[in-house]
């Protein structure tokens, strides 16, 4: 009986912890290496989205003046910067990520690594991009 209960508990925990990206994540500024913002990733239907829930460094302009879409001149705080990711094995792909500082939108892939997310933004091919590591916020 003990083995059955232990197996059930481990299976239950494994199902809910595997490649879970929902939650709050701390972003790090590439230039200063300082914590920049908190992004909350959530699920709508079968897709994942992320919005800026807290700014840790005040930007020069609190709005995305260089955005080209519906986010143009909208506040960065509360902005949906990740859109339309879908789970594909142990990765989340097929969506986009927008850099509110430059207003540029990139294709996006996210892969979980323990309490970190490897967030890759790229143009065209994944080789033409860069990866940031975001840290889980407890």
Automatic annotation (TrEMBL):
The record's listing under InterPro entries reads:
DUF2147 (IPR019223)
Transmembrane feature ranges: none
Q: Tell me what organism the protein belongs to.
A: Chryseobacterium taeanense
Report what the protein is called. DUF2147 domain-containing protein
Residue ranges occupied by any DUF2147 domain in the UniProt entry? 23-136
**Where is the secretion signal located?**
none
Which domain of life, per UniProt?
A: Bacteria
* Pfam name, any one: DUF2147
